[in-house]
Amino acid sequence: MAEKLLRVALKEDRAPQESSSPVESHELCLAQQLEMDASWLPVYHLEPEHVDVIRAFVSSPEKDEERKLKFLTSIAVLFRAATYNSLCQGLDLFCQRYKLAENIKVLLEEEPRDQLHTAVWRSAMFAMTEMSFVEAVLEGKEIGLLQACFSGIFLLPPKEEMQDLKPFLYFTTMKGMDTMLVALVLNSPTSRVNEKMQSIFQMLLTFTTSERASVRERAVGRMRVLSFLLANYSSLKADPNEERHASRAEMQMPIIGQLLGHLLLLLSFKEEETGHLALDALCLLFQFKYQQHCATLTEENTQLQGDWETKTTSLRTSPSATHIIESFAEYLQPSERSDIVRVFIEAMTDSSTFDKEAARNVLDVVRGNPDLWLVDVPKITSCIHKTLGCIKSVPARQSVESLMVSMADKCPQEVVTTLLQVAPGGDSTALALWEAMFSVPQTVRNILKELLSQLWDLKSRLFCTHLEDYCLVRLAMLASRDLGDRAFAATYLDFRFLKEERPAMLSLVLRAIMTLSERDEMARKMKVILPDLMRVLLFGYKAATTKALLVFRTIMAQLERREASHIAVQMAEFLLPLLDDELSQLRESSISLFRDLMMMAVGNDKREMKNVVRLGLLPLFFRLSDQTQSVAKLKQDRRRAQEFLIQSLSYLKDAQASLREAAVRFIALQTLAEDREPSIRSLVAQTVIIILSSLREQPRPRWTLRALCCR
């Protein structure tokens, strides 16, 4: 299709256009004559009627459809005749005097956007095609005209929704746009071809993110035409006035990375036509990049230039984004690869219309070969920082954060430098990225080492706005040095960075400590921070408290029981308010740690622990389970609960008041056994089972419910 369009745009029998560069005095004379009539135009004697139609339309307030079509047709005929007969002199002044480009733009903007009933769009684009053959006539006006064409035609309703649409009119309108685009590029001076094509591609890309399938399809169709033009430019450029034309190696297209990224994402759309057009465009761009690469090879390797068709066939037989991106990789410039990565990162945002799973798959390929893809670290880091706040989906967010971790492993210095530079003080997105990097053992050590290196110099206070006390620097000093237990403890007591009371920063520090404490050796050294970890619970920051509990549990596991005993009693008391916390994760962590601490008490501490446990008896009683068990297990538990309930009736007459109290509680619980909430029913059944089982199996008559939590 594109070859036919090119033949339409490049008529081989056109004569070369004359140079029109009159001196200023002559231009002034022509302009004065133009005010009176247009008979001075060299082309006037060939097409006087069309010149008069143009002048009349511009000066007349009457602009019905018939006059519009005559006006546009006259422009096309006039410029075609001038180009063919080498009579272009003065046409630039004629266009300026009667503002032809501006009038065409107004006509396009006035056309209805809900129907395609007239040939105004088609005629306007044919007129612009002919005007492009005359140098400087459209200079500086192409972008505005193209934007009017794209906005009007692309945003029309789908073909099947436009009433009384004539298929031929739609077809010729779209073909007219393709012809116009080809002509605008091929008629540009060689020095401006890259710029012209870059601008057009940039405009088209804005329409590929539309939620409407018809808009995407129309935009991708034009991208396919331009991709054909790019792949075949060296053989198609035919300007006899230029001594030479650009070779493929000289055709630099900075936007090609963005273009490839969007086309790869468009493959995943369900509409069949858009996917086919995107694949065609990708294959054409692969031809361009492959042949551009071959053009730089030595003569001994020229035989490689012939097998691009084989490689293209491979793309068509396996048209997945991951396969295509791997095929392109070796032929792309580093900046182009970085732009592709940025496109896929931006595709993860909640507002993006692209397939998130397809984007994640490509980012997996990127992470698998970081040396090839993660080259421009500052650019990609800045993109992640800019984008992450717009990503709420957990899988998408995890994918982007994992990419950041991979980049930090590869180039920690560049990542730290860039993030410090782009992140304003207290920036929540930056803190989230630091936390993601602090979640991986090897990464956190590398990043802390870089932070220490870059922030220790007081002349460079890049991080001072939200790290004025350098709490991470202090942590980095502990993590980066090979300190013994005593030296570690002394250094921490000098810094006490866990006294940080800003929630976000405290949570970040604790995240780093969590990861560092995964090493047993480091966890043993960290026993010095246990008192400050307890104080963290007093701040009331739930995220920080949850992390503090996990760190506390890890460190306590490294202590001998006698050493941990007294600390366990203290911490258990701190946990009491959290056993019934509204946040399930915090509640689960608290109860789990509380259970472990109960087992650590020895000697005199065991009695103190029993006193603490008595205070936690009530919340533990009601929080024995927060998770609904399976249906089969729940039925089994109910049967067992009923059996125990019958046995418990005898305890209502027991001599001990505590046992009578327990029996009353069990019977009261049965009023909730048929609660409409499954979680409540499960909790009741399990609570009754656990407590009654303990009652039945306890050999000592003076056993009480309190013993349950102290065993």
Explain what you see.
By secondary structure, the protein is mainly alpha-helical. The protein has helices at residues 2-9, 24-36, 48-59, 65-84, 91-98, 100-110, 120-131, 142-154, 167-186, 190-208, 213-231, 233-236, 256-266, 272-294, 308-317, 321-328, 334-346, 356-368, 370-373, 377-388, 394-410, 412-422, 428-437, 441-455, 471-480, 485-495, 503-516, 520-525, 530-539, 542-556, 561-575, 584-600, 604-615, 617-622, 631-648, 657-669, 678-697. Helix 13 (256-266) packs antiparallel against helix 14 (272-294) and helix 18 (356-368) packs parallel to helix 21. It is elongated.
Keywords:
37 helices, 711 residues, mainly alpha, 0% strand, disordered C terminus, disordered N terminus, elongated
How far the N terminus sits from the C terminus, by CA atoms, comes to 83 Å
Runs in which pLDDT lies below 50 for 5 or more consecutive residues are 1-24, 458-469, 624-638, 694-711
Oligomerization category of the chains in this entry: single chain
β-strand percent reads: under 5%
Helix fraction by DSSP (H/I, runs of at least 4): 55-70%
Shape: elongated
Strands, count: 0
Mean of pLDDT = 80
Largest sheet: none
- Secondary-structure content class: mainly alpha
| CA radius of gyration | 38 Å
Number of DSSP helical runs: 37
Layout of secondary structure:
Elements: H1 2-9, H2 24-36, H3 48-59, H4 65-84, H5 91-98, H6 100-110, H7 120-131, H8 142-154, H9 167-186, H10 190-208, H11 213-231, H12 233-236, H13 256-266, H14 272-294, H15 308-317, H16 321-328, H17 334-346, H18 356-368, H19 370-373, H20 377-388, H21 394-410, H22 412-422, H23 428-437, H24 441-455, H25 471-480, H26 485-495, H27 503-516, H28 520-525, H29 530-539, H30 542-556, H31 561-575, H32 584-600, H33 604-615, H34 617-622, H35 631-648, H36 657-669, H37 678-697
Helix pairs in contact: 1-9, 3-4, 4-7, 6-7, 6-8, 7-9, 8-10, 9-10, 9-11, 10-11, 10-13, 11-14, 13-14, 13-17, 14-15, 16-18, 17-20, 18-21, 20-21, 20-22, 21-22, 22-24, 23-27, 24-25, 25-26, 27-30, 29-30, 29-31, 30-32, 31-32, 31-33, 35-37
